[in-house]
Amino acid sequence: MKFIRWAVVATLTAMFHLHAQTPASVPPSPAPASGPTMEQTVAFINDTFAKIGEFHYNAGDEPSVSAGSDNQGLCAIKRDDMAVHAQSISISTDSTLTFTSSATKTINDTECVPDKHGKLVIDKATGNLATNVLVTKEEVLVRQELHLDALDPRTISVVSNEVVRTSIRLLTGKDTWPGKTIPETFSVTIKRPSSETKGNTEMITIGTFYDKDLADRVAKAYIHAIVLCHKPEAPSLF
Which of 133, 181, 185, 205 has the most CB atoms around it within 10 Å of its CB? Predict the structure, then answer.
């Protein structure tokens, strides 16, 4: 009987020591945030900007302010050609997105040449209206700062850039119509509260592309960046 009692006590003691040495259970570690990190997202957008490099497009033909409104025979067209050199973004630790771009705008001011009676002149060599062209260039530097945690990702969109097209024979401004850039270009835009009118919003361009697929992918990356600023997990990849 003593032997049995001793065996039971030894067994209980061993079980107690075994339990004391077993580590307490802990909850599993949280799953890592899905999708790219902010650093990877910024790198993807900048790599895409670098991939497209420099590109050129015609940004429309508009009636020139230098047109002789006092002479019905005069016509004038201002043509803007854009050369986009570089685009890039950075996102600071306080969620401020800085978008920068540099471009050269070549302005071709074309004026019809009237005769002494104010009538339009046809160039016999070309069969076109006789014109004088003044070419000027200007550097266009853009810098936009946006606070991502204050933006709604649903307002990001990709738009085909529309411009004004004008015929060379401009009469009372009626020979104008909406058109596209040549070649067609696409901009990634987002709405933000207007800096000038309280309660209104303004569309801000944060990237211009000649390829819609690239524009769509960068738009998704911007959405991902905004989501990362609002909560730790992103809903989808780009």
Answer: 185
Strand residue runs (E) in 127-214? 131-147, 157-160, 162-166, 176-180, 186-193, 201-209
What distance in Å separates the CA atoms of residue 167 and residue 13, rounded to the nearest whole number?
A: 101
Q: What is the mean pLDDT of residues 156-162?
A: 94
**Which tens digits make up the pLDDT trace of 20-40?**
443 444 444 433 446 899 999
Q: Positive or negative, the Cα torsion across 105, 107, 70, 74? A: negative
What is the DSSP annotation of 129-152? BPEEEEEEEEEEEEEEEEEGGGS-
∠232-236-238 over CA atoms, to 5°? Answer: 115
114, 117, 129, 169 from 125: Cα distances, Å: 17, 21, 10, 18
Kindly give the pairing relationship between strand 201-209 and strand 186-193. antiparallel
**Residue 174 pLDDT class (50, 70, 90 cuts):** low
For residue 130, pLDDT beyond 80: no
Name the region of 173 (left: φ>0; alpha: ψ -120 to 50; beta: rest).
left
DSSP run (H or E) holding 103: strand 96-112
Pairing of strands 76-91, 131-147: unpaired
Are 148 and 45 in contact, with CB atoms under 8 Å apart? no
Assigned token pair, 122:
């046809």
Per-residue pLDDT tens digits for 177-223: 788 999 999 999 999 877 666 778 889 999 999 999 999 999 999 99
pTM above 0.85, yes or no: no
